[in-house]
Structure formats: C-alpha cells, structure tokens
C-alpha cells in the first residue's frame, strides 16, 4: 500500500516550514548548564521539547522548530509523536512489558512468542531467529559471544561438554577455557563504545581512548573514487586490494579469526560504500576459513537505504550468519538462522532481562507500519528526488559538496567538505536557518531523516542549503 503523503496522514498538523525563534539558544544553554551539575551534558547540541516535536520537526526549549534530517542519530523511524506508535504504547501488552518487565530468559511472558514473531516479519531474508539486546553496541558484543561460542563448539563437537582443563582454566582467564580468538573488522568502522565493540571500532580516537583493547585485526575498507560511473575500473581494483588484505590477515594473524564484522555502509566513519562484489568476496573468505560473517545493520537497517536491510541489495550467497540491529528499530539484538549459532548450553547467552519486551513490541509495531505503507520503497523514491537536487548543488558549489555519495540508497546520502572546520561551520549555519543536520568522519555531512521524510521536506532542506552555501 502506497499513500501519496504518509506524513500528512500521520501528522496533519506538522509544521509547513522551520521556525527560527533564536539562534543564541539562551534557554538551551541554561538548561544544559543546570543539567550538567548532575549528568554529563557536554555533548548536547540543544535541549529538545519532545512534547512540541511533530513529524519531521524537532522543537527546542527556545521555541525553534528544526527540520530534523539527523533524527536522533538515525534512530527515529516514523517521525516524532507518531500516532500509531502512541496507540501501541497505550496497549495492555506494552503496559505489562514496562510495569512488570519480565526476566525473559527465566520467566518469559505468554505473549513473548507473538512479540518475537512480529519482529521476525521484517527480518532480513534468510534469517528466522533472533536474540534481543539493549543497544547497538550490546547487539554487536552479543554477536561476538555467539561467534566465539560457535567457533569453539565446532572444534569440540557442537553438543560435546567442556573438558575439566577448560573449566579450570577459564576461572583464571587462561586458555584453553579463555581461548585466544579474534574478530576482524575494518579501518573507519564504528561498532560501539563498549569494551569488545570498542576494540572493533576504528573511526575516531575519542571513542576508545584509555580503554584496554583486544588485539584484533583491522582490514582496509574500500575507498572509492567518485562519481562511481566514471571510476568503475579503479574501484574494482580497490575492492580486490582490500579483499586481499582480508585474505592475508586470515593467514598471518597471531590467533584464529572467528568472525568478520562489517557495515553495509560505513556510517560514523564517513558513509563509505562498497560493492556487492566486495561483500560477496568477504562472504566467500569467511566460508573458506571456517569463520562467521556478522553484518552490522545498526544504522543502515530498517528501511534507511530504500530496502529493509541494506545488505539485502548484495544478494549474498549464503546470507550473513548474524545481522545486528538497533537505531530505527527502537530495539536491539541480532538475527541468525543456523541453529548451531545458538550456544550449545543454556545460560551462556544470558542476562537478567535478555533484552526488553517493551522495545521489542515497539520494533514489531514499527515494522508493521513500514510494511503497511511500503515506507522503504517510499524512502527510495524520495531519495532519488533529493539526490538529483543535491547533485545539482554539488556542481554549483563543488568546494563545499565533494564526493557526493549515496545514489540509489534512498536518503542515506553524504558528502564531504574541504576540512573539518568547514564542515562544522556548515552544520552550525544550517541550524541557524532551521535545519538540524549531522556530520560523520572528520569532514563529512550525513543525512539521516525519518522514513516519512518526503519531497516537500527535501525541497525545504535544499532551499536552506542553497541559502547557506550562497553566503560562503
């Protein structure tokens, strides 16, 4: 089912344009200072008023209404104060999940199977099982555990019990109970800020400084030349160069590599793209080396690139072994399909809550709305419309819009400026004309709007960009 304007159906009173009441934001600054006495608010851009936020617009305490193309770092799927999700939040199922939050591993509710089935209705192709977590970083760390358990179980025989030596040594954090194993990830990747996910992350030093790290390998992710259609041969050679690095690491690394972790599009690291051939190459390498492939869809998943899961465009054969999710799904965890990825004994992948049925219920509701209105396809249509306008701007202002990327990836679009200083000024100037927009890597701008961002919103964004860029 496709509706001409889903946003109008959801949000009949959505603002028609941004409102800039104050560029100095005195109330936000005062609120951030006050909050900072008890909570680390140093990363706050402004203090939002979510009660007044509507659809694609976020309000702040100074009376500003920003067109939001950052959407809580890519995590708002259906707009602010979406009425369908508000109704779901009032349901008996949701109230039970919030008030009596079940310890799902020991005491699952009678409605948990239904909750899981609703989430699986929008699972990636080839995946029919899931494990629930609390955040994107948590989802990746849970996936690491599953990979390591699987890898060791394959060595000893899936249903075999542990040796006494393993049982004794693990209590001393020693091998063989605590084996030396690795997850291979990529330079410029971002997978979270916890301990193991921090070891896999390689985008900015601030994400992991002072944390003890696992000594895990980093391969190079393709760095393409743009426009893609003019650099096909060079980019093909770049794919092969990076795949050879992965092959070499599997042969040379000091400990066995049990899994490869990769984003379909590197997001925090700069919106870096790679081809279906590159990803199939990774899939082949993992199969050849007895390792698992983890596809990190935390930021790219849930319709953001014009399909439900970005890696589905690559038609990988066979599908990835695990697919992690969070962000726009408002829940977290990983999908999988091989029964042997399930740890061979209970209480191995486990904690008190084993996720959160309230967030899982919300994820199921989000998936239902996306399917109802075919919002992934709609995002692709809007993205095509927006990309053409941005391409025209990039030709007019090439100094400030370099390496425009994300064609045919819905609104998952980015570009680079000449420096980080220029990028930060652009973000600030856009805010002053009523657009909340985000950056990535050192010098790039990324668009991460909701799935109900439409052509009328794209026109407002481009008009604001023209106003800012023409002033430089």
TrEMBL record:
It comes from the Eukaryota. Belongs to the class-III pyridoxal-phosphate-dependent aminotransferase family. Signal peptide: none annotated. It is an enzyme of class 2 (transferase). Its EC number is 2.6.1.19. Its cofactor is pyridoxal 5'-phosphate. This is 4-aminobutyrate aminotransferase. Keywords: Aminotransferase, Pyridoxal phosphate, Transferase. InterPro entries: 4NH2But_aminotransferase_euk, Aminotrans_3, Aminotrans_3_PPA_site, PyrdxlP-dep_Trfase, PyrdxlP-dep_Trfase_major, PyrdxlP-dep_Trfase_small. Pfam families: Aminotran_3 (PF00202). It catalyses: 4-aminobutanoate + 2-oxoglutarate = succinate semialdehyde + L-glutamate.
């Amino acid at each position: 089912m496709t509706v001409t304007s889903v946003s109008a159906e959801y949000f009949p009173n959505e603002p028609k344009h941004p409102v800039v009441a104050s560029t100095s934001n005195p109330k936000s600054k005062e609120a951030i200072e006050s909050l900072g006495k008890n909570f680390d608010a140093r990363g706050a851009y402004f203090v939002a008023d979510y009660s007044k936020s509507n659809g694609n617009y976020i309000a702040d305490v100074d009376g500003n209404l920003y067109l939001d193309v950052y959407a809580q770092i890519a995590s708002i799927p259906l707009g602010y104060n979406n009425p369908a999700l508000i109704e779901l939040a009032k349901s008996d199922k949701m109230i039970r999940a919030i008030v009596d939050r079940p310890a799902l591993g020991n005491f699952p509710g009678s409605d948990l199977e239904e909750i899981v089935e609703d989430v699986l209705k929008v699972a990636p192709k080839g995946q029919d099982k899931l494990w629930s977590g609390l955040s994107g970083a948590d989802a990746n760390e849970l996936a690491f555990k599953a990979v390591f358990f699987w890898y060791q179980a394959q060595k000893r025989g899936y249903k075999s019990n542990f040796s006494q030596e393993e049982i004794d040594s693990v209590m001393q954090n020693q091998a063989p109970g605590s084996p030396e194993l690795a997850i291979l990830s990529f330079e410029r990747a971002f997978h979270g800020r916890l301990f193991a996910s921090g070891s896999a992350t390689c985008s900015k030093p601030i994400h992991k400084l002072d944390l003890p790290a696992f000594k895990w390998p980093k391969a190079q992710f393709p760095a393409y030349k743009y426009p893609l259609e003019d650099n096909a041969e060079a980019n093909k050679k770049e794919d092969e160069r990076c795949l050879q690095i992965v092959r070499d690491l599997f042969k040379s690394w000091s400990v066995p590599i049990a899994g490869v972790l990769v984003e379909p599009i590197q997001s925090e690291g700069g919106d870096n793209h790679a081809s279906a051939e590159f990803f199939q190459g990774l899939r082949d390498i993992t199969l050849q080396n007895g390792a698992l492939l983890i596809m990190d869809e935390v930021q790219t998943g849930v319709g953001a690139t014009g399909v439900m899961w970005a890696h589905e465009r690559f038609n990988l054969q066979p599908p990835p072994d695990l697919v992690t999710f969070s962000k726009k799904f408002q829940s977290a965890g990983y999908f999988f399909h091989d029964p042997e990825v399930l740890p061979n004994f209970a209480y191995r992948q486990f904690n008190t809550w084993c996720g959160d049925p309230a967030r899982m219920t919300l994820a199921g509701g989000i998936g239902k709305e996306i399917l109802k209105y075919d919002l992934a396809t709609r995002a692709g249509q809007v993205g095509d419309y927006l990309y053409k306008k941005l391409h025209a701007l990039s030709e007019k202002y090439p100094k400030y819009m370099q390496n425009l990327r994300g064609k045919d990836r819905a609104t998952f679009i980015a570009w680079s400026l000449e420096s980080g200083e220029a990028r930060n000024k652009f973000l600030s100037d856009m805010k002053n004309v009523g657009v909340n927009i985000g950056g990535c890597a050192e010098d790039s701008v990324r668009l991460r709007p909701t799935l109900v961002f439409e052509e009328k919103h794209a026109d407002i964004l481009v008009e604001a960009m023209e106003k800012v860029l023409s002033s430089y």
